[in-house]
Amino acid sequence: MGFWERWRIPIMLAPTMAVIILLFIGGLTYGTLVSLGWQPIIGRTEISLQAYQNILFSEQYASVFWQGLLLTIWVSFASTFLSAVLALATALLLRRSFFGKRLATFLYQLNLPVPHVVAAIGILFLFSQSGLISRTGAQLGLFGYPSDFPVVVKDKFGIGIILSFVWKEVPFVGVIVLAVLQSLGVDYEDLARSLGANRWQRFRYVILPLVMPGLLSGSILVFAFTFGSFEVPAILGVRFPRTLTVTAVRFFRNPDLNARVEGMAISIIISIIVFFLVLGYMWLSRRTIRQD
Amino acid sequence: MTPVSSRPPASKRLARSLHYCAVGLLIFLLLTPLIAFFFNAFSFRWFYPQLFPKEISLRAWESIVAANSKVPEALLNSTILAVGVTLSSVIIGLPAARALGLYSFRGKRVIEFLIISPTIVPGIAVAMGLNINFIRWGLSGNLLGVGLVHLVPVMPYVVLTLSGVFSNYNPEYEQQARSLGAGVLATFWHVTLPAIFPGIVVASLFAYLISWSQYILTFLIGAGQVITMPVLLFSTASGSNNALTAAMSLVFVAPSILILILTARYLSGKSSAIGGFGQL
């Protein structure tokens, strides 16, 4: 075996792995070390859990962290669940053949390249107290003043944040599901129909198991993204509670070096939570699929 | 054509019109946030409760092209970054994608796991860790450093897309070309490239889109020195000039929608790559 045959694969993988190891793993590792108090530049080389202790238990930050965690979990679970359900429903809607299907599918995908910053601004234009929906209501005589319109963006339950994610992610997951549905054809369903399965049975025992893997992998991406997203909760959130990412970036931007370390600790906590939730989710979903 | 005599029964027609209503409602709901941008971008003194702005104005657009506008600089920076990140990510990712698509080897699953892990771990943890070192290495606050960090969310999608293409690729054509006397470069140019071209288009589309839309990594590594379109838009959105925010959003989104329309025919059926849309 020549040199090229032996080393071909490592050499081909090297450039990509250099990016992953140096930038991704390197950044993550260094961030973890700094969050543990390791800052050789200013002469601190001992490892401590002080920053984590401050964030999780100190009187000053504990409520910021725990309330923020609650909001973050609520927002990302609600966004993921609603996106997955609506994506499945809308993909089934667009899958049937009808006049104008190509146009409808094109318009369905139009928001895919729209960045989340823009999505958040769009939701603000629509749902703020003087936004388009409030104005439409006012034209119909429902509201007299902007303050009559309920607070749904910049609200403490994160409704605006969820709306923005759902608007962005329904076509995203929907396109993945639609691609699976189109590759299936109608053979399985025709077979099930000829065996006497009704509409609900065809959905539950034929379509759902087949689209489930795509639906789950799409929703894992949505969950991980919404959990760590910054722009949307920064634009549509309130001062208290803030999502964990927004708090982490605020701490990190603080000129005080201790706050910086605490910001780093929050972002490491976010990564650990996302990692384990995604792992648990994958394990659960594999088990469910196998049972079907 | 269906003859008139065989009109479907009433229940079928009802089901069909219900279906049309549902599709119409869906498209309406998806488009209204986008329509709101056009309303705002051309409005001036748009008082509550007017539904349509009474005064149509180009003020916002004038301030975008005004001499003191930061939009041209931001557009230039965003373009340099997106083009640079796209080209380098495809060059870096192509060999790895080939290795993963064509060969099986020990540790392949670990390598695949490492390459897709940036899609799961939030970018802020990575960017915060890199920030301090990038300051020391002179990579903070400039385009080079920001471009390097953009590679982290981009690489998984480039490698994933291209390795999918290589798994349906037959390398024997290359050997035939070589045995007929073609050099390494000629073989790549005339044999490999045409075969993987659709994959390269899709990989480039996602690399461009992810870099173009990136806010938080640019903000943390650019340290306020690198003004891109998302950075400028975010700070404008924090102000109260809705017309300017809307006009800027349209300028920001237009190239992405145009590029998506131009490349749409390559995109169908590439569900592995579609994941890239979730990172924008």
**Count of domains of chain A:** 2
Number of helices of chain A: 12
Give a count of the beta strands of chain B, DSSP E runs of length 2 or more: 2
Class by alpha and beta content of chain B: mainly alpha
- Please mark out the parts of chain B with pLDDT under 50 across 5 or more consecutive residues, or reply none: none
Give me the oligomer status: heterodimer
Helix- and strand-based class of chain A? mainly alpha
CATH architecture of the largest domain in chain A: Orthogonal Bundle
The largest sheet of chain B, given as strand count, sense and whether it forms a barrel, is: 2 strands, antiparallel
Provide the CATH superfamily of the largest domain in chain B: MetI-like
Widest sheet of chain B: strand order?
1-2
Query: What's the CATH topology name of the largest domain in chain B?
Result: MetI-like fold
CATH class of the largest domain in chain B: Mainly Alpha
Count the helices of chain B. How many? 12
What is the average per-residue confidence, as pLDDT of chain B, rounded to a whole number? 90
Shape of chain A: globular
CATH fold assignment of the largest domain in chain A: MetI-like fold
CA gyration radius of chain B, whole angstroms: 24 Å
The main pleated sheet of chain A reads as: none
Structure report:
The complex is a heterodimer of chains A (292) and B (280). By secondary structure, chain A is an all-alpha fold. Chain A has two domains: 1-48; 58-291, Orthogonal Bundle (MetI-like fold), CATH 1.10.3720. Chain A is 75% helix and 0% strand. Chain A has helices spanning 3-35, 50-57, 62-95, 101-108, 116-127, 132-139, 159-184, 187-194, 199-228, 231-236, 244-253, 257-291. In chain A, helix 1 (3-35) crosses helix 12 (257-291), helix 3 (62-95) runs antiparallel to helix 9 and helix 8 runs antiparallel to helix 9 (199-228). Chain A starts with a helix and ends with a helix. Chain B has 280 residues and is an all-alpha fold. A two-stranded antiparallel ribbon of chain B has the order 1-2. In chain B, helix 8 runs antiparallel to helix 11. Chain B is globular. The model of chain B has no long low-confidence stretch (mean pLDDT 90). The interface between A and B is large, with 101 and 88 residues.
